[in-house]
Design a protein that fits this description.
64% helix, alpha+beta, 5-stranded mixed β-sheet
Length: 424
């Protein structure tokens, strides 16, 4: 799977920031304990508090040491790393507050900090888990006597009302922050994902446009040589008319030449707009059958099977760009497995599904995972054919997928959204 480099850098920075926030919190904790003990003369369990602070320092140090190793962490596991770190912070804060007055401690409001960080950095399920744990910790401190409270009024004093009011205020604040900040974070994440996808598609379109300009120049230059080859083929046919063993070679040459001239004609007649957008309805099954027949006629050495799972009366808007996509897939399959190439054409969930399979050496699982991403197909690695098909699929709001069947080889699936029409 392709990982968004910007998102990985952001997650790395988030974890680093979390460590520095914890470090700042440790300094504030030490300062607050010192003021309480030496400034106000309060009696606190210094040893127990020191052990908690030492544990925080150890966790922060280990995290900083692991940051370099965490750079290679899969993108989906970063949020779990952050969740564990925040859970530790909630646990440490709960212990510190329990030993320094419980719910009466004026620093109980610090529970809101992990909630804000979770709502910003984690997904909704993880955020709600941490929110529930924070509220539960606060409730334990507010409702359960800790034995470390200092005299602050009788049981029926107004401070009891203040204490429960603090609890209610924290619960309401935590819930509001979780709901709204999580929604904002989700919207930002969705926007970033869309921008990443748009940038990748724009890069693919830029390369296609550059290749299109080169192809237009090449098409202009190839017109005269192709006409010359046609004349030479006619002269050879007349000269070698009596040599029957030469006729099959001449027929193959004529088919290949006709295919080249047809491709050149399509290229010269194409405009800046997608011709698929101006195509006319065709009977879809017949259209792809004829395309396969023309391809097999030009590649008769390939062992080829076709299965069209479309009714004879089903129509859709398609043109030669669709045939070009299918031909490119067939050409790639024939290169690696001329002894067995098969194509299956069907209609699934509002899209025409073209599946071309071969019995070649196959593609590794890692390569398939990268290819199945919208921007995973590079021109340098896989040539113009597959790159063009992928760009065509993106333009038609479709998808190009790669599979490794258990029987071996590779299956390439092209999904193209098309609205079918029944020919009554």
């Amino acid at each position: 799977m392709i990982q968004n480099p910007a998102e990985l850098r952001s997650q790395y920075k988030n974890l680093s920031l979390l460590v520095w926030i914890r470090s700042l919190s440790i300094m504030m904790q030490c300062a607050a304990i010192s003021v309480a003990v030496y400034g106000f003369g309060l009696s606190l369990p210094i040893v127990s508090l020191a052990w908690i602070i030492v544990a925080e320092l150890i966790i922060s140090g280990v995290t900083l040491y692991r940051l370099r190793q965490l750079e290679a962490l899969p993108q989906g596991l970063w949020s779990y790393e952050l969740l564990v770190q925040l859970l530790f912070d909630v646990f440490a804060l709960t212990l510190l507050l329990y030993l320094t007055g419980g719910g009466l401690n004026p620093f109980t409001g610090l529970f809101i900090v992990p909630v804000i960080l979770a709502a910003t950095l984690l997904n909704q399920r993880q955020t709600w888990f941490l929110v529930v744990l924070s509220i539960a910790s606060y409730c334990v401190l507010a409702l359960m006597p800790t034995g470390h409270e200092h005299h602050m009024g009788g049981a029926n004093s107004l401070f009891d009302v203040h204490r429960y009011g603090m609890l209610l205020g924290f619960v309401v604040t935590a819930l509001l922050i979780t709901v709204f900040v999580s929604r904002i974070a989700a919207n930002l994440a969705e926007r970033d994902a869309q921008l990443f996808k748009i940038n990748q598609q724009a890069e693919a379109s830029r390369q296609i446009n550059a290749l299109g300009m080169l192809a237009a120049g090449a098409a202009h230059d190839l017109g005269t040589p192709l006409n010359s080859l046609s004349l030479i083929e006619s002269e050879l046919r007349n000269t070698l008319a009596e040599q029957e063993d030469a006729l099959p070679l001449l027929d193959m040459h004529a088919r290949q030449l006709e295919r080249a001239k047809r491709s050149l004609h399509d290229l010269m007649s194409a405009t800046g707009e997608s011709r698929a957008e101006n195509a006319s309805p065709v009977i879809l099954g017949r259209f792809f059958k004829q395309a396969c027949e023309r391809w097999h006629a030009a590649n008769s050495h390939v062992q080829f099977t076709v299965a069209v799972e479309l009714a004879d009366n089903v129509q859709a808007t398609a043109d030669t760009l669709f045939e070009k996509a299918l031909v490119n897939l067939l050409d790639n399959a024939a290169k690696v497995s001329p002894q067995c190439v098969s194509v299956n054409i069907s209609y699934v969930d509002g899209a025409v599904k073209l599946m071309v399979s071969d019995k070649g050496p196959g593609i590794s699982e890692n390569v398939i995972n990268s290819l199945n991403e919208p921007a995973g197909l590079s021109l340098q690695q896989f040539g113009f054919g597959l790159f063009w098909v992928n760009a065509f699929a993106i333009r038609m709001q479709g998808k190009l997928q790669f599979l490794r069947p258990e029987s071996g080889g590779t299956s390439v699936i092209l999904l193209l959204p098309l609205a079918l029409k029944n020919d009554h």
